[in-house]
TrEMBL record:
Coiled-coil positions: none
UniProt GO MF annotations: hydrolase activity; metal ion binding
Organism the protein comes from: Bradyrhizobium uaiense
InterPro entries per record: FAH, Fumarylacetoacetase_C_sf
Signal peptide: none
Record keywords: Hydrolase, Metal-binding
Protein name: Fumarylacetoacetate hydrolase family protein
SUPFAM superfamilies listed in its UniProt record: FAH (SSF56529)
């Protein structure tokens, strides 16, 4: 069972920043948009029916500070009641901090993860083949492409060299080519928050967490804040065929975002995101421990470029979107048999952390074991209408 405390959840500077969350209110039969402050959790749904509506404000942080709201209780109590084991269904619990935003993700945005995708493709989803292929790929393209600007003349020369050596890959195309890979991660409203179970397809035998920063963007394309995310990935499914991307990425509870959304204000900006280090710890019931990190400073494409390639004249998102920025973390540490690398086991506890954003903690279960997702868009609209906040 996961145990959550404010000290292990909030950013290092506590509630100094502008922190937004969503809380399930049993008495209302639906979610509330909340401000998490030093003196408690405050329901601001009467002013902002959705987090999306808040993010459409000209200055979301100022708008939230100007709204007192109704106090629900202590953050500690709401947080402690969030894990599904032992949850009191008559009391509030925390949800993922986004709602109407479309859940998007950018892939192959770091050189290391790009090489791992090439390895997955060549291994055809077989982890036992990966080690030998990894050595061959590194021999051909090297292991430090961090200074290579995607779409540049240098990148295009490298592309031609690799084509000539029959070593080109669709993953290298989006890794160093002009066009970023941006895909829809999961349905709107389907993400899970901290303390909740995160899902793996029950047929997957080679998978891993992907610790990432998630930008929250308004319908006008303005980046308004950030959270942490786990873009859970099935390496065996995607490795067999890129056309299985939706099955590799979009399963029940496979999109985790949290613990809270931190809006940009005087204490936190996009430049802080650009310098951010995201840590990962996986602890298994078998005693296995895996640690790693992802440094946004090593990203191949600037976050503003990824956002610009996501929204514009060709693609519109009136209610905004949440964009996973990608990860440089691709675990290769052997867990069981030598040369087979890492894969999850049931009840792994995954912690994704960054000083400015806090900690996102999830327990890994099969997607069919996680809480079913049943509260969709129509249920949300009906609930908000019944509460007379629309």
């Amino acid at each position: 069972m996961i145990s959550l405390t404010p000290r292990d959840t909030l950013p290092e500077d506590g509630t100094r920043g502008t922190l937004v969350g969503r809380v399930w209110l049993p008495q209302a039969g639906g979610p509330a948009v909340v401000a998490v402050r030093g003196d408690g959790v405050f329901d601001v749904t009467a002013r902002f029916p959705t987090v999306s509506a808040l993010c459409e404000e000209r200055d979301p942080a100022s708008a939230l500070h100007a709204t007192r709201g109704e106090r629900i209780g202590d953050f500690e109590a709401v947080l402690a009641n969030t894990p599904p084991d032992g949850r009191d269904k008559t009391r509030p619990h925390l949800l993922a901090p986004v709602d109407l935003q479309v859940l998007k993700a950018a892939g192959v945005t770091f050189a290391i993860s790009m090489l791992e995708r090439v390895i997955e493709e060549r291994a055809r989803g077989n982890p036992s083949s990966a080690d030998a292929i990894r050595k061959e790929v590194v021999r051909l393209v090297g292991d430090d492409l961090s200074k290579l600007k995607p779409g540049s003349e240098q990148a295009m020369r490298l592309k031609q060299v690799l084509i000539d050596q029959n070593a080109w890959s669709q993953y290298l195309e989006v890794g160093i080519g002009p066009d970023a890979e941006v895909f829809t991660k999961a349905p709107t409203l389907s993400s899970v928050g901290t303390g909740m179970d995160a899902g793996l397809h029950p047929k997957s035998t080679w998978n891993n967490p992907e610790p990432e920063v998630v930008l929250v963007v308004s319908g006008a394309g303005r980046i308004v804040g950030a959270a942490l995310g786990n873009d859970v990935n099935l390496r065996d499914f995607e490795g067999r065929s890129a056309l299985l991307l939706s099955k590799a990425k979009d399963n029940n509870a496979s999109c985790a975002i949290g613990p809270l959304l931190r809006l940009f204000d005087a204490t936190f900006s996009l430049d802080d995101v650009r310098k951010m280090d995201v840590g990962l710890t996986v602890k298994g019931a078998d005693g296995f421990v895996l640690e790693g990190h992802s440094s946004i400073s090593k990203i191949s494409r600037d976050p503003t470029d990824l956002v610009a390639q996501t929204i514009g004249p060709v693609h519109q998102y009136p209610d905004g979107f949440a964009l996973f920025l990608g990860t440089m973390f691709a675990p290769v540490k052997d867990r069981d048999a030598k040369g087979e690398g890492f894969t999850h086991k049931r009840d792994d506890i995954v912690t994704i952390a960054a000083p400015q954003l806090g900690k996102l903690v999830n327990r890994m279960r099969g997607s069919d074991e996680c809480e079913p997702w049943s509260f969709g868009l129509s249920a949300l609209m009906k609930n908000l209408a019944q509460r007379k906040v629309l």
